[in-house]
């Protein structure tokens, strides 16, 4: 008996601290450790199959049905269908069952097809060939057959089949180069390392002889974290333990590059791999339209129940007298009532009885069964109960001794309940079941318009926009807040080295002298823009530090990834690649200044100094960069034997650890560069004695070998080592603004959106970017809510001061006073204090409300020094505010994922920081500029289309079912259907479904060019304008009005004793067919009147649907169908069309029904036109769109204080918000001129005292 599982559980959960419960042990090559080493406990791990599919062949039907009937609408119609099957209802179960079957089938086919595609993808991955080392030879097998502990060989350009630990490579230094594009989108080459004790195994036989085990953490989804250690066993020696980290782990899906081959051991397989663990689905987001649909559905459900209750009550009021206990045309005699009874069982005897009815004071027949086989003579009495259309069955069994009054009461209750259910079934078509499948198809098909948009295709990246979820298309037209990252989103993340400062002296790679561009690299005398520049020891140390403190790789190959790079004069030259563009820019900047980084070879870094001498430094340790420390360090040993620690990082992380150097001079230059929008880093060093180096090695070794809390222990070790620095200088790197980023932000603000920038950069750098991108303007008064200010004043006082400032301006805005444009700057430390409960107030959310009030009255907000979690907190705070605005978050890096997932709509940019943001987003775009068209055009169209779809579905169903409700008043509430079964079934499926579906896909109420040119048109659809309750009430009332016209118009037409050509009178089904014909034509023509963009497809579908109805009716009533048990519709439609008055009545009723809506539109467009309707009128009149603003009309006078012509900045009367045309360019130019004359202008004068141009008043 195998007790391995039991032993494993005992060892994991009952052992001491030595056995960490969250670890696993992997035996390389499945070799048992030496007997004296440790107990061999075989563990069971999943195979290497990847399963991303949701269903199998066996569970598809039950699982899919279960998931679909979890939707309340589907479950409701299932109940209606079951009621129709169980009780005698006025309509056939087919009328509810067929539409429900259609919806369920279409959804199941769609989901099944998507899952089949996932199955195909899984099979292609699982059947991929893999080379595995077995008994000293390479054996080819399928990827799915790999197991944990197998040793595999991967060749260049092959993808890793599972998560592997690198053992050795074809490169002499035991390294390999990997791209992780499929994981995080980073196309740069990353270096991974084998431990020194295994890197010497170069052949299959040598690798197969390796005897080792690996202890590591259990699988977890973090791509950038791994903790483990390898124990290597050698004969007659103690095992050697080496730490393993993320630099040793090769992830599934990554690709081997520029390395011949590697040997590695499988550590995580199948669904345990980090890539598979990242498959987990994101939380479901619901759009505002979907919430409105559910609210409208509840209203209509209440209307449905009300109708059923009213009709049930009125039916029994009608039947109160004995003469009306049945409808007059269906009155049964006493003999008929006693005819249909259930035969008793053989051993029962039957006794007729009569039960007294209290409700109508009449005697009701009942039947008593007596069991003759029992001595007790048990008697059961059965009351009559209509059970099915074909049989009046008796289902209620009670003892015969029960008083007659109870029999009568129960009988009446049951009959009333069944009548209520029957009326529910009759009127249930007011709930549009097909609306859900139409909406789903509209979203799915409509999402392809974003993917196919050529304007959103980026030639440089070779990619277009992507749609990861189609459920939020219409939400793109409702955005009120845009939260954007800065680096890589507003900026290009394409770094260029600008300058460096060493002890206050500035060095520029290229400078202009006498009109010529001089290169510092071409001469030994470097160009110094500050007086007194000369070579000193600190300068050499500074340049060496930047050449050594990095993770840059040097490539000398002519081709990399089939792309020729580094070609100069036909000869291959070296170039740099790194996962961080900052590092490449710094190393290239040093190269232009005379210090060239050559290579890393045999753990030695080589640099070429300005004297063309090669210097070698042994790389001993790398203290990697992390977002908490915000710095990285290296420990190197010079050729003279000196130990040096070089460190570079953010100024806030370097300055507190500096004990010497010209701190004030460097700090001043850093602040000046930050104001100019440059990214800055500080550089420092420390000389280590041999004893200090040994202590540092000991601390790092202990931390790296730890399996538990390794990150915390490493952070403590780094903190002890990185101290007592000597400051060398600082660098400045420029990250250019993305193309059309400023124009995009300006358009979003014109559209009424608040734009917030959330970044981890320092305030000065981020503020300069905000000015350049027109988020802040020269007239913007900056309100600071930063740590520096809260140190001078309490947070409470600062918040209330800012609150009084913005509230005072809001009170003045009602007067004829120029509106002040405010911008708010807040940092991460202050935000944490704001979000904490207030100690000075009893209300825990007091500071939050004040902060929200301030930000609500600011045109733009900049949040700097933000951690990823704080970005998500900001988005969540705005989402939860009392207005509940629709939020959008956009970013390009892994640190933006949290806010992307938190926002209502998350957009990822496929940039240079990887594709993790794009993978976790709802939509992905190549550049920030594409956000303008996605929101202002696609979002606008999506919302207009789906809002019309939802309102139209409810409208046409009211038109459809309300005549049925009115008809009950004329048929004694007998539940007689007005329409034929075929019409009930096909109304929503065939006759009226395609026109609205096509409308919701291709309708364009205004041109694309107009939407892009005039962003204010976005305001017309903002805040769910087309699905508000007044609009919903208008559509509902219009439907009720039309339904009354249909019914009473046909009724009065019949009241005139209309005859056909042969003198025959119209009958019941002819009346219903006439109403239905007017109904179908009216709702279809109503949609045609609402259509602005006509194509041949519209004509084909609209007129084709009407033609299909006519042809179907002719065939349905013109042929005796053998499969029908009734022929009530035979010749009805033809008989109706043969009547001249019927034709006249149809045309007249359609015209009367459509007339009020047409009149209302004409009056509204003439008297109270919206901006969109003005634009439509301008386009229709052929007026040049650029001469007059279609949203506002001409403005006779320029905006006060703007300066220059403001013809493109017209201010609508309903707001005091300036339309920012060319002012942003002038503001940026003014800002540049300010900086050229006095770089410290923004430091010497507080930003919150800037002059006002009176352009914006976004908060009012």
From TrEMBL:
<feature type="region of interest" description="Disordered">
    <location>
        <begin position="1178"/>
        <end position="1206"/>
    </location>
</feature>
<feature type="transmembrane region" description="Helical">
    <location>
        <begin position="1032"/>
        <end position="1054"/>
    </location>
</feature>
<keyword id="KW-0256">Endoplasmic reticulum</keyword>
<dbReference type="InterPro" id="IPR001757">
    <property type="entry name" value="P_typ_ATPase"/>
</dbReference>
<feature type="region of interest" description="Disordered">
    <location>
        <begin position="1235"/>
        <end position="1260"/>
    </location>
</feature>
<dbReference type="GO" id="GO:0140326">
    <property type="term" value="F:ATPase-coupled intramembrane lipid transporter activity"/>
</dbReference>
<dbReference type="InterPro" id="IPR059000">
    <property type="entry name" value="ATPase_P-type_domA"/>
</dbReference>
<keyword id="KW-1278">Translocase</keyword>
<keyword id="KW-1003">Cell membrane</keyword>
<feature type="binding site">
    <location>
        <position position="759"/>
    </location>
    <ligand>
        <name>ATP</name>
    </ligand>
</feature>
<dbReference type="GO" id="GO:0005789">
    <property type="term" value="C:endoplasmic reticulum membrane"/>
</dbReference>
<keyword id="KW-1133">Transmembrane helix</keyword>
<keyword id="KW-0547">Nucleotide-binding</keyword>
<feature type="transmembrane region" description="Helical">
    <location>
        <begin position="982"/>
        <end position="1002"/>
    </location>
</feature>
<dbReference type="Pfam" id="PF16209">
    <property type="entry name" value="PhoLip_ATPase_N"/>
</dbReference>
<dbReference type="InterPro" id="IPR032631">
    <property type="entry name" value="P-type_ATPase_N"/>
</dbReference>
<dbReference type="Pfam" id="PF16212">
    <property type="entry name" value="PhoLip_ATPase_C"/>
</dbReference>
<feature type="transmembrane region" description="Helical">
    <location>
        <begin position="1066"/>
        <end position="1088"/>
    </location>
</feature>
<keyword id="KW-0445">Lipid transport</keyword>
<comment type="similarity">
    <text>Belongs to the cation transport ATPase (P-type) (TC 3.A.3) family. Type IV subfamily.</text>
</comment>
<dbReference type="InterPro" id="IPR006539">
    <property type="entry name" value="P-type_ATPase_IV"/>
</dbReference>
<keyword id="KW-0812">Transmembrane</keyword>
<feature type="binding site">
    <location>
        <position position="895"/>
    </location>
    <ligand>
        <name>ATP</name>
    </ligand>
</feature>
<feature type="binding site">
    <location>
        <position position="583"/>
    </location>
    <ligand>
        <name>ATP</name>
    </ligand>
</feature>
<feature type="transmembrane region" description="Helical">
    <location>
        <begin position="1100"/>
        <end position="1124"/>
    </location>
</feature>
<feature type="binding site">
    <location>
        <position position="865"/>
    </location>
    <ligand>
        <name>ATP</name>
    </ligand>
</feature>
<dbReference type="GO" id="GO:0055037">
    <property type="term" value="C:recycling endosome"/>
</dbReference>
<keyword id="KW-0479">Metal-binding</keyword>
<feature type="binding site">
    <location>
        <position position="486"/>
    </location>
    <ligand>
        <name>ATP</name>
    </ligand>
</feature>
<feature type="transmembrane region" description="Helical">
    <location>
        <begin position="295"/>
        <end position="318"/>
    </location>
</feature>
<feature type="binding site">
    <location>
        <position position="871"/>
    </location>
    <ligand>
        <name>ATP</name>
    </ligand>
</feature>
<feature type="binding site">
    <location>
        <position position="679"/>
    </location>
    <ligand>
        <name>ATP</name>
    </ligand>
</feature>
<dbReference type="GO" id="GO:0010831">
    <property type="term" value="P:positive regulation of myotube differentiation"/>
</dbReference>
<keyword id="KW-0813">Transport</keyword>
<dbReference type="InterPro" id="IPR018303">
    <property type="entry name" value="ATPase_P-typ_P_site"/>
</dbReference>
<dbReference type="GO" id="GO:0016887">
    <property type="term" value="F:ATP hydrolysis activity"/>
</dbReference>
<dbReference type="InterPro" id="IPR023214">
    <property type="entry name" value="HAD_sf"/>
</dbReference>
<dbReference type="InterPro" id="IPR044492">
    <property type="entry name" value="P_typ_ATPase_HD_dom"/>
</dbReference>
<dbReference type="GO" id="GO:0005524">
    <property type="term" value="F:ATP binding"/>
</dbReference>
<feature type="binding site">
    <location>
        <position position="625"/>
    </location>
    <ligand>
        <name>ATP</name>
    </ligand>
</feature>
<dbReference type="InterPro" id="IPR032630">
    <property type="entry name" value="P_typ_ATPase_c"/>
</dbReference>
<feature type="transmembrane region" description="Helical">
    <location>
        <begin position="420"/>
        <end position="439"/>
    </location>
</feature>
């Amino acid at each position: 008996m195998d007790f391995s599982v039991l032993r494993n559980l005992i060892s994991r959960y009952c052992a001491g601290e030595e056995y960490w419960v969250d670890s696993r042990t992997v035996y390389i090559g499945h070799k048992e450790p030496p007997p004296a080493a440790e107990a061999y406990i075989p563990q069971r791990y999943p195979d290497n199959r990847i399963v991303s599919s949701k269903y199998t062949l066996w569970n598809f039907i039950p699982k899919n049905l279960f998931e679909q009937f979890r939707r309340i609408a589907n479950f409701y119609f299932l109940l209606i269908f079951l009621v129709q099957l169980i009780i005698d209802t006025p309509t056939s179960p087919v009328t509810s069952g067929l539409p429900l079957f259609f919806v369920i089938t279409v959804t199941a086919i769609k989901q099944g097809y998507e899952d089949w595609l996932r199955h195909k993808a899984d099979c292609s991955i699982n059947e991929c060939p893999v080379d595995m080392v077995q008994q000293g030879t390479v054996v080819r097998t399928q990827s799915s057959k790999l197991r944990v502990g197998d040793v595999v060989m991967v060749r260049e350009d092959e993808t890793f089949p599972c998560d592997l630990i690198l053992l050795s490579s074809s490169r002499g230094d035991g390294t390999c180069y990997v791209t992780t594009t499929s994981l995080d989108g980073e196309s740069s080459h990353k270096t991974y390392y084998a431990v020194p004790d295994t890197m010497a195994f170069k052949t299959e036989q040598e690798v197969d002889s390796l005897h080792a085990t690996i202890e590591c953490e259990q699988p977890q989804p973090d791509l950038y974290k791994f903790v483990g250690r390898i124990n290597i066993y050698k004969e007659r020696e103690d095992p050697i333990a080496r730490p393993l980290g993320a630099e040793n782990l090769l992830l599934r899906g990554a690709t081997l590059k520029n390395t011949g081959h590697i040997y590695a051991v499988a550590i995580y397989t199948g669904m345990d791999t980090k890539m598979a663990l990242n498959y987990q689905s994101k939380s479901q987001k619901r759009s505002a339209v979907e919430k409105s649909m559910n609210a409208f559905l509840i209203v209509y459900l209440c209307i449905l129940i009300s109708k059923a209750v009213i009709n049930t009550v009125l039916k029994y009021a009608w039947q109160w007298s004995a003469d009306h206990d049945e409808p007059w045309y269906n009155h049964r005699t006493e003999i008929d009532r006693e005819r249909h009874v259930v035969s008793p069982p053989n051993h029962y005897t039957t006794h007729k009885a009569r039960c007294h009815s209290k409700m109508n004071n009449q005697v009701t027949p009942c039947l008593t069964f007596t069991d003759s086989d029992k001595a007790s003579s048990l008697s059961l009495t059965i009351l009559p109960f209509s059970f099915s259309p074909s049989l009046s069955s008796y289902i209620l069994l009670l003892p015969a001794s029960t008083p007659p009054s109870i029999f009568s009461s129960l009988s009446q209750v049951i009959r009333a309940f069944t009548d209520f259910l029957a009326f529910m079934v009759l009127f249930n078509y007011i709930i549009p079941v097909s609306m859900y499948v139409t909406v789903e198809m509209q979203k799915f098909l409509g999402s392809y318009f974003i993917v196919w948009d050529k304007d959103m295709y980026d030639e440089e990246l070779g990619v277009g926009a992507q749609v990861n979820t189609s459920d939020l298309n219409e939400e793109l037209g409702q955005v009120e807040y845009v939260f954007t990252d800065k680096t890589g989103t507003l900026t290009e993340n394409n770094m260029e080295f600008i300058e460096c400062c060493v002890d206050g002296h500035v060095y520029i790679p290229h400078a202009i002298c006498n009109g010529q561009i001089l290169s510092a690299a071409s001469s030994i005398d470097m160009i110094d823009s500050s007086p007194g520049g000369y070579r000193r020891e600190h300068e050499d140390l500074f340049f060496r530090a930047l050449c050594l403190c990095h993770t840059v790789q040097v490539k000398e190959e002519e081709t990399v990834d089939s792309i020729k790079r580094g070609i100069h004069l036909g000869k291959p030259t070296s170039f740099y690649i790194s996962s961080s563009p900052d590092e490449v820019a710094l190393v290239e900047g040093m190269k232009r200044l005379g210090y060239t980084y050559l290579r890393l070879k045999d753990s030695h870094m080589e640099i070429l100094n300005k004297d063309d001498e090669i210097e070698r430094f042994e790389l001993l340790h790398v203290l990697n960069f992390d977002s908490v420390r915000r710095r990285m360090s290296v420990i190197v040993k010079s050729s003279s034997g000196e130990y040096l620690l070089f460190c570079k990082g953010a100024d806030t992380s370097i300055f507190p650890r500096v004990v010497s150097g010209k701190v004030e001079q460097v700090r001043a230059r850093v602040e000046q560069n930050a104001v100019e929008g440059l990214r800055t880093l500080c550089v420092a060093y420390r000389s280590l004695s041999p004893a200090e180096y040994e202590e540092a090695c000991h601390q790092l070794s202990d931390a790296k070998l730890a399996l538990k809390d390794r990150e915390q222990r490493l952070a403590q070790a780094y903190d002890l080592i990185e101290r007592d620095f000597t400051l060398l200088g600082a660098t400045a790197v420029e990250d250019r603004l993305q193309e059309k980023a400023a124009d995009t932000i300006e358009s979003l603000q014109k559209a009424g959106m608040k734009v917030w920038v959330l970044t981890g950069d320092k305030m000065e750098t981020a503020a300069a970017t905000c000015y350049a991108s027109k988020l802040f303007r020269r007239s913007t008064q900056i309100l600071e809510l930063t740590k520096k200010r809260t140190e001078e004043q309490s947070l409470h006082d600062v918040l209330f001061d800012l609150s009084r400032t913005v509230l005072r301006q809001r009170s003045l805005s009602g007067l004829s006073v120029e509106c002040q444009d405010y911008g708010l700057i807040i940092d991460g430390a202050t935000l944490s204090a704001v979000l904490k409960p207030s100690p000075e107030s009893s209300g825990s959310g007091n500071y939050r409300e004040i902060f929200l009030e301030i930000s609500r009255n600011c045109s733009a907000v900049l949040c700097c020094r933000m951690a990823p979690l704080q970005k998500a907190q900001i988005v969540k705070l705005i989402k939860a505010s009392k207005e509940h605005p629709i939020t959008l978050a956009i970013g390009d890096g892994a640190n933006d994922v949290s806010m992307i997932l938190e926002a209502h709509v998350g957009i990822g940019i496929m940039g240079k920081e990887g594709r993790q943001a794009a993978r976790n987003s709802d939509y992905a775009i190549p550049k920030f500029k594409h956000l303008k068209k996605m929101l202002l055009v696609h979002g606008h169209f999506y919302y207009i289309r789906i809002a019309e779809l939802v309102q139209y579905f409810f409208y046409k169903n009211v038109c459809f079912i309300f005549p049925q409700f009115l008809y009950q008043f004329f048929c004694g509430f007998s539940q007689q259907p007005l329409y034929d079964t075929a019409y009930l079934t096909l109304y929503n499926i065939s006759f009226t479904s395609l026109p609205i579906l096509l409308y919701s896909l291709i309708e364009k109420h205004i041109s694309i060019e107009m939407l892009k040119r005039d962003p204010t048109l976005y305001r017309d659809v903002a805040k769910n304008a087309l699905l508000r309750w007044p609009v919903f009430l208008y559509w509902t009332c219009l439907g009720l009005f039309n339904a009354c016209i249909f019914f009473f118009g046909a009724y009065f037409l019949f009241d005139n004793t209309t005859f056909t050509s042969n003198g025959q009178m119209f009958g019941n089904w002819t009346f219903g067919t006439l109403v239905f014909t007017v109904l179908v034509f009216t709702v279809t023509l109503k949609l045609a009147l609402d259509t602005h963009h006509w194509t041949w497809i519209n004509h084909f579908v609209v007129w084709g649907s009407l033609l299909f109805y006519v042809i179907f009716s002719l065939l349905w009533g013109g042929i005796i169908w053998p499969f029908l048990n009734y022929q009530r519709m035979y010749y009805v439609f033809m008989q109706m069309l043969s009547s001249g008055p019927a034709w006249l009545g149809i045309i007249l009723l359609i015209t009367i029904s459509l007339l009020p809506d047409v009149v209302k539109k004409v009056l509204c467009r003439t008297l109270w036109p919206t901006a969109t309707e003005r634009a439509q009128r301008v386009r229709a009149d052929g007026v040049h769109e650029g001469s007059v603003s279609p949203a506002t009309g001409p403005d006779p006078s320029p905006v006060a204080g703007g300066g220059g012509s403001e013809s493109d900045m017209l201010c609508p009367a309903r707001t005091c918000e300036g339309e920012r045309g060319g002012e942003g360019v002038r503001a940026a130019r003014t800002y540049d001129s300010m900086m050229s004359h006095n770089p410290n202008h923004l430091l010497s004068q507080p930003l919150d005292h800037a002059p006002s141009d009176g352009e914006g008043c976004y908060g009012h």
